Amino acid sequence: MGEDVRVTRDARPRRAQGGVAAVGRASARRRRQVRGHRWALRSGAIATVLAAVVGMQTAGLLDWAGEQCRVWPRTEAGLTYCAVGQRLTGDYPDLVGVMINRGTPEERVAYVYGEELARADGSRVSGPEEAVAYTAALAERAHRGWELGLNACLGDRGAVTAEQAARACDLMHETGAGLAAVTAYLQGLDLGLDEDGARRLAIDAQAAANRLGGIRLVAYELDGVTVAGEYAVGGL
Questions:
Q1: Which of helix, strand or coil describes residue 35?
Q2: How far is the first Cα of the chain from the last one, in angstroms, to the nearest whole number?
Q3: Average pLDDT, integer, range 147-162
Q4: Cα-flanking dihedrals φ and ψ of residue 89, to 5°?
Q5: What is the mean pLDDT of residues 186-213?
Q6: Which of 6, 141, 190, 222 is the most exposed place for a label (fewest CB within 10 A)?
Q7: How far is Cα 68 from Cα 56, in angstroms, rounded to an integer?
Q8: Predicted confidence band at 61 (pLDDT cuts at 50, 70, 90)?
């Protein structure tokens, strides 16, 4: 009997110890599972972010590649062309869509040769020396156009010098005031102009400068042969 009691007493602690150990092992498993679940969530979040970043980068590369590797449509004669306002990247197509006769009832779409447009708008400039030369030539042409335009509009009312015309041109392009600055400058010259007359002269002179000194390209129909009119590049 005593032996049974001793065995029972010995067995109970062992069973109790075994139960505590089992609970401990279960708790450890649960902690590992929780840690594993949390790591999986973090991994999933990291993977999602990385996938999003890669996706955005890929989309950007695809957009870039699409722009750089654009396949232009072709005319029946085999000339590549683009529509008016279509973004130009890399080399220009054979024909570029433009609007001619803007602001008039004859406003319409026509096409200029891409190579001519690229030379005129500076797209073919490469390197600082060419950029400086192009900018100087552009400024000289603008100044000359304003000199011709101002004197044509003034007629027998007077004349401006090349330096005065250049100053008027620069004021129109270099200041935020634009027309107001040119109006004040012309009014200050010895031309007998009031404010309204000086403003009218500035407006008419700029239009004449574009007509007389601006770069004008021959515009064609989509066949690249039939002349449709002229296209003025930029503004003076």
A1: helix
A2: 121
A3: 94
A4: -135, 145
A5: 91
A6: 190
A7: 18
A8: very low
